Amino acid sequence: MKKNKLYIAAALALLAIASCKPTLDEYTPSAGSVNFSKYVAIGNSLAAGYADGGLYLEGQKVAYPNLIAEQLKQVGGGEFKSPFFSEDQANGSGYITLTALVNGQPVTAQVTDKLAYRSASPKLLTKYTDPINNLGVPGMRMDLSMVAGMGSPAGNMYFERLLPDADMMKTYFTYSTTQNHTFFSFALGNNDALGWATNGGVVNINPITNKPDPTTVLTETAQFTAILNGYVQALTQGDRKGVLATIPDVTATPYFTTVTRAALLAAVNATNPPTPVTNIYIATKSGPRAATDQDYFVLPFSSTGLLGKPNAAQIPYGLHPLNPVEDKYVLDVSETATVVQRINEYNAAIKAAADSKGLALADVHEFLNNVKGGVRINGLAVSAKYITGNAFSLDGIHLTPIGNALMANIFISAINSKYGSKIPQVDVAKYRGVKLPDTVTK
Predict the structure, then answer these.
(1) In the chain, what is the straight-line distance between the N-terminal and C-terminal CA atoms, in Å?
(2) Strand order in the sheet with 96-102
(3) Would you call 189 helix, strand, or coil by DSSP?
(4) Which is higher by pLDDT, 316 or 438?
(5) Which residues are bridge partners to 186 per DSSP?
(6) Could you tell me if 44 and 142 are in contact, meaning their C-beta atoms sit under 8 angstroms apart?
(7) Under 8 Å CB-to-CB from 248, ≥6 apart: which residues?
(8) Would you call 437 exposed, middle or buried from its count of C-beta atoms within 10 A (0-12, 13-18, 19+)?
(9) pTM given for the model
(10) Per-residue model confidence as pLDDT tens digits over 281-335
């Protein structure tokens, strides 16, 4: 975790960039050494525009690749197509919305109208098989990109939506590397760490097959690196250019930083227990213990209603070592160290791959770590605070429109720096953060 002085230095650097007064030449857009005529974006939920726990039309429209593509039009970029939901199915997979703030606590509801499902079991979305440039698929991982059948009804419903039935066994790797592009952005691999982390460092076991759920496994670095290098080799054939993105530190997101030990203790003690509660007990792989401020409770734990609830033996949940908070709700200090190290290893591989082919590098990891401590960009306060921090949507992982605009600018800056292009930055002020409700109850 970076020290505060690094946050401050990064904030000052960003402000300095924002306050520089470019010359007239610097305002003249140019492509530099790159052909942007066919830009494709390879990635997962962030690239797709997933937000607020779902994929829906408004989020798709402000996905960072779409914002980048709009700026690329000023330097020779061509049409950029995305698999948008139709207006009558604009709410896509469904998502959560903020309906009220009661005593400062969020109240959310699931949007259930104008959905885009063609099948309820298995859940399948309305097909979109026209040619596209935004290839982002929510839930896609580096390891799963090589698995045949991910585009079948038994696989990933977002990928299945994009493939004709005859192509359902095509891997995401093959699909995404055969688009006849001239320029690419590559931001895949986040889920290879995130799935394990958001599940509290627990690998789920399928009770029928007795095999691990692949979305909760922490991908081995060697496997990650081999697939990454295969991607870079395929995408750069013919001396094509692109930009790779590093993987964010999962602990820089509100999903892990919102529900704190102190907040849980305050909530319990607000109920006036017979004696003040001083410890929250958690289950770890080495046994139950009292939680510390270095342990991360996941965001969904706040809405479970479990804390303090007695079991059959009348032992309150989480308030006694004999009934601790389950491991799946906590990324403890040991698990945090594991996932942070793995992400650092992934990012070392990404940086090496970029260097090996002379590609641009968008350091999303560094940027979001800076944002975690809070910065001001063009006068806008941005942080990892839940709801009020502007960058993250209601699911605590994915981005708001403001967050997407900031992300697009990280990519644009990296491209300009590497290739001598002059792509204008996105105007972040045009985009919103979390939609606040009209109802606030004190």
Answers:
(1) 36
(2) 105-110, 96-102, 439-441
(3) coil
(4) 316
(5) 42, 244
(6) no
(7) 190, 343, 364, 365, 368, 369
(8) middle
(9) 0.91
(10) 999 999 999 999 999 999 999 999 999 999 999 999 999 999 999 999 999 999 9
